Amino acid sequence: MSAVQEHTTGLHIEALHAFWQQTLHGASSGAMLPWDLQSTLLAGLGLNNLEVLRYLNTERPSYEVFEAWVVALTGDGSAESERERLRRALSGERVGSPIESLDSVEGLSEAELAQWDEQGYVIVRQAVSAESAQAAELAIYEHLGMSRDDPDSWYSEALGHTIWVPLLRHPAIVANRFAPRVVKAFAQLWGREDMWATVDQAGLNPPERPGWMFPGPRLHWDCTLARPHHMEIQGILYLAETEAAQGAFCCVPGFHKKLGEWLDALPVGVDARAEALRTLQAEPIAAGRGDLVLWHQSLPHGSSPNRASRPRVVQYMSMRPTRWDYNPEWR
After folding, report:
1. What pLDDT digit, counting tens, does each position of 146-159 carry?
2. Residue 159 shares a structural domain with residue 251
3. Which domain holds residue 152?
């Protein structure tokens, strides 16, 4: 029996022990999980990457304490059937969709798939119902102690000077991650069904006013610019109707096909990320309540100042297969 197996008790997931070991003890631990399997592990357990790393590096718990923390945090959100699917996937077995069959679920049309290919983004209309979107919207206001119809409440200390809302496991938020049209869209674009939903934050971007100006993030990439460039898919779900001037998500359409050429043309020594922010023109993407914007990670993207009359309220989401191609070099 391996050292990893000897330490897997409650959850019986060998990869979780390997992750704990390499996070606290580094390469010398001898049990290293590649990045894609780390991501699958955390997504499959209903964990957010940042919260886990913060806990491990701050508390430096024993494995048994860490495992108990995982169980207490996720509770019924990680049922035994889901854990068994995760065990099978981590062992190399091909698993199916996280929900029932996708065959009867409406997917992206040929025109929408063509837009994805050419523009690097697509809007999944009514990815979740208006009722489901509104439930998550109201959960965000409640979490922040705000009233949707009281503008003065939108600038509370609970939000702070940020647009990020760390609401990770509210039932309405979780339900949206696994809405059939959401899963189907990611599965179509990846070309496979073994999807794992990342546990991402929500967001509230109130209108700018004196004392509260847009804090960003402005145009950026969340991926390495080192070659080779690979596909990953990021997403933002609009929980309320969002017009272009309402702090809408912005991107540079089609740039996923130009990234390499653009990088080659930069003068030596120029910071590509700073140059993109200085020179590239992003397009705001307006959409309706329950619409999901998906984009290729090679697109420069960001949020924008809200110059409308109501907050932009959103949920960030992404799905990946069990294994995928990625570049471990950060640049």
Report:
1. 999 999 999 989 99
2. yes
3. 110-320
Contact between 22 and 32 under an 8 Å Cβ cutoff? The reply is yes
Residue 103 lies in a domain: no
Angle between helices 80-90 and 35-44 (to 10 degrees): 170
Please name the helix (run of DSSP H) or strand (run of DSSP E) that holds residue 164, with its range, or none: strand 164-165
Tokens, residue 88: 């099978």
| Residue at which a domain ends, from 34, 60, 90 | 90
Q: How many structural domains are present in the chain?
A: 2
pLDDT tens by residue, 243-289? 999 999 999 999 999 999 999 999 999 999 999 999 999 999 999 99
Residue 98 lies in a domain: no
Cα separation, 195 vs 321, whole angstroms: 5
> CA distances (Å), 114 to each of 108, 110, 111, 118, 191, in order?
10, 6, 5, 6, 14
Residues 6+ apart with CB under 8 A from 39: 49, 196, 198, 320
**Helix 14-25 vs helix 49-59: angle between axes, to the nearest 10 degrees?**
60
Give yes or no: residues 44 and 167 share one domain: no
Q: So what's the pLDDT on residue 79?
A: 77
3-state secondary structure of 19: helix
What is the reported pTM?
0.94
Q: In this structure, are residues 225 and 325 in contact, taking their beta carbons and an 8 Å threshold?
A: no
Residue closest to 234 by CA, chosen among 249, 248, 214 = 249
